[in-house]
Amino acid sequence: MNYIYETMYILRPDIGDEAVEAAIEKYQNILKENGAEIIETQHRGKRRLAYEIAKQREGVYVQMNYQGDGSQVAPLERAMRLSTEVIRYMTVKQEVPKAEPEIETEPAEV
Question: Which CDD domains match (predicted)?
Fold first, then answer.
């Protein structure tokens, strides 16, 4: 059964634009190789962190939404954990909205 996942990760601010694009592509490829379908990737840019993480005050935020059976999350998070460019990441499984039965309404008589 497929679910929709959202992974938000923060890259170090001192890496260049090319390194940011390479990192985004690397993590997208990990997902694709493991059978996930990428729905959307948003490069949210450099933002100030709420608190200092690994001696960094800013970070480059990236959000990926993808669909898969869940087996894609572990290899992705392992690659992020071992990476020196990722300072924080989080994956959330999103609730898939259930199709609500349509209520038939009869036209009112005039």
Answer: bS6_chloro_cyano
Radius of gyration of the chain, Cα coordinates, nearest whole angstrom = 19
CA distance 37 to 59: 26
Question: Domains of the chain by range and CATH?
Answer: 3-94 (3.30.70.60)
Q: Where does residue 45 fall: left (phi above 0), alpha (psi -120 to 50 degrees), or beta otherwise?
A: left
- Rounded alpha-carbon distances, angstroms, from residue 53 to 38, 62, 63, 86: 28, 16, 18, 11
The pair of structure tokens assigned to 10 is 């923060």
Find, among 10, 80, 68, 76, the residue nearest to 38 by Cα.
68
